[in-house]
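Protocol step 4 of 6: structure prediction from sequence.
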Amino acid sequence: MTEQRADGSAGDADYGAIGSTYSSYRRPDPRIAETISQALGDARTVVNVGAGAGSYESTTLKVTAVEPSRSMRAQRSPALSPAVDATAEQLPFSDDSFDAAMSTFSVHQWGDLEAGLKEMRRVSRGPVVLLTCDPVLVRDFWLYEYAPLVLETEARRYPATSEITGVLGGDSTVKRVPIPIDCTDGFNEAYYARPELLLDPAARQACSAWSFVEPAVQEQYTDRLRSDLDSGLWDERYGSLREQPTLLGSLVLIRAVP
């Protein structure tokens, strides 16, 4: 059963508490947006499930957003349509209502993954497109050395890609998405070449996995990272990333067509 919080957040993270600056730090990256657009194909009507503040919603398509968190709905741009207050597991739409369904950085929040995926498949005539992370690859990121519990949390929360494609059925593909060096969408790996930005508490707050780690432990993690940045040790080990245009990390795009 999906857990409902005070602001309506569904799942294991309370966006009423951690989502206040989400739209400032989790701005859609245009290169990732283009990847999503290509996956949606010629769809004209799209349902965006777990839409949050509206990241990656096209303004050229007719998008119906679904978001249970009041805090996240309040951060949506006036240029976007208001979001429907509902959860992935119970979409208030008829069968085959949309040309496509999409969800970005949301499936790991759902209380019942299978139910949510089946609902997306039910309401979409065409592709179901999901931007998520492959839990098998999460720990490969350098941040695991500094904040192991954060990435352990991410690896635990993200569902296996095989589980997602198994539920969606049809013709499914899983594609790793290159993360640009100046990525504007501030998930952890977006800062692969800019480690200093993870010293910003608001930037970390916009990555929900950090909220599962006690503040004192977070402080230990960031103190060590700051120390290694100050001493030059981080750059000795990972400095080449500062010149690497993209990173193939755990970010993946899953596309399933009936």
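Step 5 (inspection) to follow. The mean pLDDT is 92.
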